[in-house]
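Incident log, structure service

09:12 report received: a user says their structure output differs between two submissions of the same chain.
09:20 pulled the input from the user's history:
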Amino acid sequence: MTVRFVNWRLGFYGARLLPSTSTILGFSGHLANLFLPNLHKDFTTFALIIPSLTIFVLMLTIQWSQPRIEVVVLFILSALWLAMGAWSNDIIGHIQCDGLAGQRTATKTGDMSAQEYCYEMKVTEAISWANFILFLLAFWITLSLTSQAQSFGRWDIWREPIQELGWFNEYPGFYNSTPGMMPMQYMPTAGGFVPYGQTPGMQQPLPQGHTLIVQPHHGQAPTITQVPYGTAGV
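09:34 re-ran on a clean worker, output below:
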């Protein structure tokens, strides 16, 4: 587990995306109580589904996820919030709320302040655009960190727990280690990365009288063979 990435991810989801999404869910619930089932039903239903789905998915991925799952989830959620922002703008984007003072709009049981409705829609639109940008940013960061982990030799990182991703310039699976900190005497494994439970610089002990032959391959993991000492030059 990489502490920095885990903390940043948890803070980003828990302190930024979940509160803003919960705000939209609260506004949508209030409008649903006023309008459904007969007034503004298409947008109001959509506005209930998107934040509810987002909160549910975020709670699941916080518990467990993989990079290949995370990037798909983030891309889909960013697209949904883009649709939410665009739809909100289509409904209320051209209206100035200040000019609606004293006006009323119909509800299922009577009417409400048109200005209050306008303000709630404006907030919904603003947060929807913000969530779209944040999910898109999270998608790019996850993609970049996964590609970085692969460049460090973690070929199967797409299928590993997402907590194993390192932050920028950190090795995957190890907190606060950078490429410049890798000791020269470190011997890579056949997979090209540091095994779980070890830190950079640790070596597996060899049986007495044995040595390792490392055969590099261009663009691929090296082949490492253990042979008795004295036969390495054969």
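09:41 both user submissions now match this output. Likely a transient worker issue. Closing.
09:42 reviewer note: The helical segments are 3-35, 41-63, 67-92, 114-151. The chain has a mean pLDDT of 82.
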